[in-house]
Amino acid sequence: MPNVNIQPDYTALVLGCQDFCTQYTNFSWAFGTGTLCVTDDLRNYAPTSFTAYASGAGRMQHGARPAALPSRQGHFRLESGHHGARWFDLDQLFIRPAALQRSATTLAEQLAEYRPEIICGPLIGGAFLAQLIALVLDVEFAYTERVTRARDTGLYTARYQLPAGLRAQVRGKRVAIVDDIINAGSATRATHAELQEHGAQTVAIAALLILGRAATAFAAAAGLPLLSLAQQASGLWSPEECPLCATGVPLEDVVTPQP
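Above: the chain sequence. Below: its structure as tokens.
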């Protein structure tokens, strides 16, 4: 492990923290296979198990804990209907908004050139991040929420809707879609369709992390710029082509909330 000097008032957004622990100054960070985003200039820092991006994830007071995005390896049925080998548990991400402020600001700076009038994100995490970005850009905020569960068969069957009170707000407006992480892109696609249905003009898509190529392909087909702080490969398959199904790995449904 390289010896890296990180200033005490820096924090990090750790994507995929899991197995490996180390400690810098007053911070204790859990690292693992995944992506590490730090505020320091570490473009050349790339330990064996993950890649570092100098994209920034906020500054916090001395001694504060960094925000983390823990992930699990396994066999997961995603909202899109695809099967995947990795799942991010995002419940803890937005507990400390200050830890995400720098990341939100970085994405806001990237989005500014597309002159959005509204930042829209799918609930839950995408909406929280969209609100932070809207605050930075001093523009309006909107959100979509899932109203139908993805069916057991078929891909991209989930539907997201704008609340009735926001539908007139987006008509004729330039809207940027923001999500926390985009993998297959079910929520992003459904949000885009809903915005189009209500007369909005989508001008860009943005996320903290893009997994795989599905989002890139969708954005290219829609003629939209795709912005992110980091990108990473993803194991994503249709059920018929899933190698984990073929080898009998148990499937976990992460779409249906557990009691």
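The first strand starts at residue 12 and ends at 17.
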